[in-house]
Amino acid sequence: MRLTDGYYENEYAHFWIRNSILFFEYKPNIVIDLTIAHRIVADRIQMQNEKAYPILCDIRGVVDSDKSARDYLAQSGSVLTKAVSIVANQSVSLIMTSFYLKICKPSVPTRIFTDESSALVFLETYK
User: Fold this and answer.
1) What is the pLDDT along the chain (127 residues), one digit of tens a residue?
2) How far apart are CA 70 and CA 102, in angstroms?
3) Cα distance between residue 100 and residue 3, in whole Å
4) Which of 19, 95, 86 is nearest to 59 (CA)?
5) How many CB atoms lie within 10 A of CB 32?
6) Could you give phi then psi for residue 111, rounded to 5 degrees?
7) What structural domains does the chain harbor?
8) How many Å apart are CA 37 and CA 18, to the nearest integer?
9) Neighbouring-strand partners of residue 92
10) In the chain, how many H helices and how many E strands?
């Protein structure tokens, strides 16, 4: 994990904190398996330094994920989170994410959006 002025990056994502919200953006063309899911969560938790945040998670770069990764992210991926806004494309990722939320039932309030401004409005109440 690389840290530069509050901006963090690994091979799979960029993340930063602004206005008491953690922004998490997957890099383009990412396929998430369980190993990658473990790395992403570990890096995020390390960056948060024991403090919980509402999270805006931009998944528009994700092209696929396996079931074990989705299950892990739904459970352990919620550690140190107050709420999650998922920003998805209006295509397949939106359908897949809706299905994921119904099946996996994340342990914190989680909603899907197609634009960042609506996603941020949802997170404001969890700051």
Assistant:
1) 555 567 899 999 999 999 999 999 999 999 999 999 999 999 999 889 899 999 999 999 998 888 899 888 878 888 999 999 999 886 656 566 666 666 666 778 888 899 999 999 999 999 9
2) 12
3) 31
4) 86
5) 23
6) -135, 160
7) 2-121 (3.30.750.24)
8) 23
9) none
10) 4, 9
At which residue do the structure tokens 């939106």 appear?
94
Structure tokens at 82: 């107050």
What does the alpha-carbon distance between residue 94 and residue 27 come to, in Å, rounded to a whole number? 17
Q: Distance (Å, rounded) from C-alpha 119 to C-alpha 11?
A: 25
Predicted TM-score (pTM) of the model is 0.85
- Following DSSP, what letter does each residue of 68-101 receive, concatenated? HHHHHHHHGGGTTEEEEEEE--SSHHHHHHHHHH
